[in-house]
């Protein structure tokens, strides 16, 4: 029998890298009895960091699914990586979690990672709590950490506990919810419960009162009771806190030392008693915009939040049962492609250890293997169900590199390896660019791409090298030019003849008709690479037959595709065909197409040709102390600063930066800020390339084009 939905707690551990998530997860498993001995990061033997790569690096790179039984309940725990490069793993974990536990390092307080990850918690409306961890550290500062949490995340942040003696020798926590003092033995574990000493009663009572008030605030009957009696009993308090937590009306703060195994038991107790089950949190939305309740007797909806590929096993799919009950032998339908999938095995997981079970009820997390055509973000449903789970939206990439073409023998192997890697990690995006004639990889940071390279070499035995990606420049014109071109050729008996007179103008939406020309027909071509080609037919008196119009346009488009300056795509040009000549026998489509190409090419050179480059909106969040360095670096990248604002003790900078100047930004920013910065980027616009850079690019292209002929 699967665990009842009301007895499930799905928890995701979040936090800046190094805050102690993985060790804390280990402690939770140990305290619950799921592990008989505690691993350490240094010992490379934790349940969560079970891949060789993570152990070597001493850092989580992938999310890990764990679970612990605690009294009546099963607590599913997902440990996540802290590095922003792996935020995809965090987002997919948040999608299936019902409570977020944000681990904060007491020696450094709120860090960039804390802030960025909290944004996701708020966006996902995930109930959340904080753990101020590493209180055993000599530099631990609880008060500052708590103050920073309140400053950054507002008055809903409320302490449940405080440490009596943070720092070396830490062993005592005052708990204002239970109004009790916990004193831990040297090796941690089960604390001794003692009355709160006289000297601390004042502070503890004040905290307790604040918790009771916020528990009462979110429920009318509790509110009444509170006004009548001035207090709530334990049961009412728990009920009120569950409602407040589930609706993000309170973010409680706890104390811990993962290293010395202090505090995790109480936090699991809180998750057990107070944290919402999948039934109590706001309902997630389906692809059809309807709320989906975690009803274990309803139709089955199984959502795949993560897929990995294991050497001996093949595809391993991590899922949440959003509704219904999943049983072995179930035949489900993948809503994304209508394929049938038979569920042969269902597992629960503790890192790499998997244990087979017969069924999982609504709300539970599990693993299955060997699905045929099912990927991350797909929903498997009972036949007849039409709405799935709204997919995870992964963040925009922040770095791009080109893959150096491998030797012939490896081309297919590499392509396959990249494909599988993308299936496992949707934040890796692969693009075959016909425009740049390169294979481009887009990812979340240098570390992200380096790791992908490392894994592909290890797992698939294909050597992979990166090179600088080319920039997708655009070409346009800045002034009017008139041009005529005559194509004439005599070969044997037949000949070719076409003559066109054209005018090129920079195109703008809503511009008036060309001076002195009578426009017969207007065509506006929205170009697949952005911008417009306006093609005007202004022939009076039939000097060219209208039937040649499309051949001329085709000729122009050929050159627009591979522009005269650097072979880049052209955009935002109006061409008016206003005169020409044809020959009754020798004129044909081919001749007019060629004439169109040549006339356009020549006119372009006289029309103030201009290269355009992609400009990105870049948003940077960094510690205020690095502000000067970050700004100084931006100045070397032809950046335009669009705004600055402070967010807590962080500084947010908005800038517009040419893509050509951004290729090493991810690693540079990391090194100048010692990792205390994050950024995002998004294509904003195309803008003129400065004259000296244009000259250089055009000269390079012309020299290269010359070589090729
Ligand atoms: N002193 C102390 N060190 C800790 C504590 N928790 C974790 N660490 C250390 O901090 C480092 C990072 O821990 P880890 O669990 O990998 O952090 P994560 O990146 O958040 O998963 C490791 O060297 C741990 O041994 C703690 O409570 N106290
Ligand atoms: Mg970790």
Description:
By secondary structure, the chain is of the alpha+beta class. It folds into five domains: 7-273, P-loop containing nucleotide triphosphate hydrolases (Rossmann fold, 3-Layer(aba) Sandwich); 301-381, Translation factors (Elongation Factor Tu (Ef-tu), domain 3), CATH 2.40.30.10; 399-467, Elongation Factor G (Translational Gtpase), domain 3 (Alpha-Beta Plaits, 2-Layer Sandwich), CATH 3.30.70; 475-607, 2-Layer Sandwich (Ribosomal Protein S5, domain 2), CATH 3.30.230.10; 611-692, Alpha-Beta Plaits (2-Layer Sandwich). Helix content is 28%, strand content 31%. The chain is built from 16 helices and 36 strands. The strands form eight sheets. Strands 2-3-1-4-5-11-6 form a seven-stranded mixed beta sheet, with helices on both faces. A hairpin with an 8-residue loop joins β7 and β8. α3 runs parallel beside α4, α6 (198-217) crosses α7 and α12 (549-561) crosses α13. The longest helix has 20 residues, at 198-217. The chain is elongated and about 110 Å long. The model has no long low-confidence stretch (mean pLDDT 94). It binds guanosine-5'-diphosphate (GDP) and magnesium ion. The site of magnesium ion has 3 residues, from α1. One of its GO terms (molecular function) is GTPase activity. Keywords: Elongation factor, GTP-binding, Nucleotide-binding, Protein biosynthesis. This is Elongation factor G.
């Amino acid at each position: 029998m699967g665990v009842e939905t009301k007895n499930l707690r799905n928890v995701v551990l979040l936090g800046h890298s190094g805050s102690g998530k993985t060790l804390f997860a280990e402690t939770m498993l140990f305290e619950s009895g799921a592990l008989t001995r505690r691993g350490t990061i240094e010992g490379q033997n934790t349940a969560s960091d079970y891949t060789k790569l993570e152990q070597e690096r001493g850092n989580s790179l992938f999310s890990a699914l764990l679970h612990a039984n605690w009294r009546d309940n099963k607590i599913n725990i997902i440990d996540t990586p802290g590095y922003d490069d792996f935020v995809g793993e965090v987002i997919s974990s948040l999608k299936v979690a019902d409570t977020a536990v944000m681990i904060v390092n007491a020696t450094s307080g709120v860090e960039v990672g804390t802030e960025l990850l909290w944004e996701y918690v708020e966006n996902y409306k995930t109930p959340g709590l904080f753990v101020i961890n590493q209180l055993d550290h000599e530099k631990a500062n609880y008060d500052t950490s708590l103050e920073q949490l309140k400053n950054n995340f507002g008055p809903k942040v409320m302490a449940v506990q405080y440490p009596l003696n943070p720092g070396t020798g830490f062993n005592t926590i005052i708990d204002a919810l239970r109004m009790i003092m916990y004193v831990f033995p040297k090796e941690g574990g089960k604390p001794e419960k003692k009355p709160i000493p006289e000297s601390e009663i004042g502070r503890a009572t004040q905290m307790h009162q604040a918790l009771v008030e916020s528990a009462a605030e979110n429920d009318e009957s509790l509110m009444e009771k509170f006004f009548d009696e001035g207090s709530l009993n334990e049961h009412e308090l728990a009920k009120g806190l569950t409602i407040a937590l589930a609706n993000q009306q309170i973010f409680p703060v706890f104390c811990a030392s993962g290293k010395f195994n202090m505090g995790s038991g109480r936090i699991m107790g809180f998750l057990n008693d107070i944290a919402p089950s999948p039934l109590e949190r706001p309902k997630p939305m389906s692809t059809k915009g309807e709320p989906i309740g975690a009803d274990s007797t309803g139709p089955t909806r199984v959502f795949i939040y993560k897929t990995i590929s294991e050497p001996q096993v093949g595809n391993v799919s991590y899922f949440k049962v959003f509704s219904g009950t999943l049983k072995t032998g179930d035949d489900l339908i993948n809503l994304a492609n209508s394929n049938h999938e038979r569920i042969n095995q269902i597992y629960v997981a503790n890192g790499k250890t998997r244990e087979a079970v017969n069924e999982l009820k609504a709300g539970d997390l599990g693993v299955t293997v060997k699905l045929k055509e099912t990927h991350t973000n797909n929903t498997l449903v009972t036949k007849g169900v039409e709405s799935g789970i709204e997919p995870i939206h992964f963040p925009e990439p922040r770095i791009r590199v080109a893959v150096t073409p491998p030797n012939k023998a490896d081309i297919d192997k590499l392509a396959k390896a990249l494909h599988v890697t993308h299936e496992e990690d949707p934040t890796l995006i692969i693009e075959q660019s016909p425009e740049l004639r390169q294979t481009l990889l887009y990812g979340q940071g240098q570390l992200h791409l380096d790791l992908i390279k490392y894994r592909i070499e290890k797992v698939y035995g294909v050597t992979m090298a990166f090179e600088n990606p080319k920039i997708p420049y655009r070409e346009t014109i800045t002034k009017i030019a008139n041009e005529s071109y005559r194509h004439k050729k005599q070969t044997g008996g037949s000949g070719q003849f076409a003559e066109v007179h054209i005018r090129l103008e920079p195109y703008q939406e809503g511009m008036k008709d060309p001076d002195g020309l009578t426009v017969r027909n207007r065509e506006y071509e929205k170009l697949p690479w952005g911008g417009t080609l306006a093609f005007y037919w202004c022939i009076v008196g039939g000097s060219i037959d209208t039937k040649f119009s499309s051949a001329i346009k085709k000729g122009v488009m050929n050159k627009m595709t591979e522009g005269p300056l650097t072979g880049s795509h052209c955009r935002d040009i109006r061409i008016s065909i206003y005169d020409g000549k044809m020959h009754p026998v020798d004129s044909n489509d081919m001749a007019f197409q060629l004439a169109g190409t040549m006339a356009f090419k020549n006119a372009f050179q006289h029309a103030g040709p201009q290269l355009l480059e992609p400009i990105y909106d870049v948003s940077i969040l960094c510690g205020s102390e690095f502000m000067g360095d970050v700004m100084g670096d931006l100045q070397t990248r032809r950046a335009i600063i669009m705004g600055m604002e402070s967010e807590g003790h962080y500084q947010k900078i908005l800038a517009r930066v040419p893509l050509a100047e951004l290729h090493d930004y991810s690693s540079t920013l990391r090194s100048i800020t010692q990792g205390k910065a994050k950024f995002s980027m998004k294509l904003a616009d195309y803008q003129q390339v400065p004259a000296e850079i244009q000259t250089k690019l055009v000269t390079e292209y012309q020299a290269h084009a010359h070589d090729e002929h």
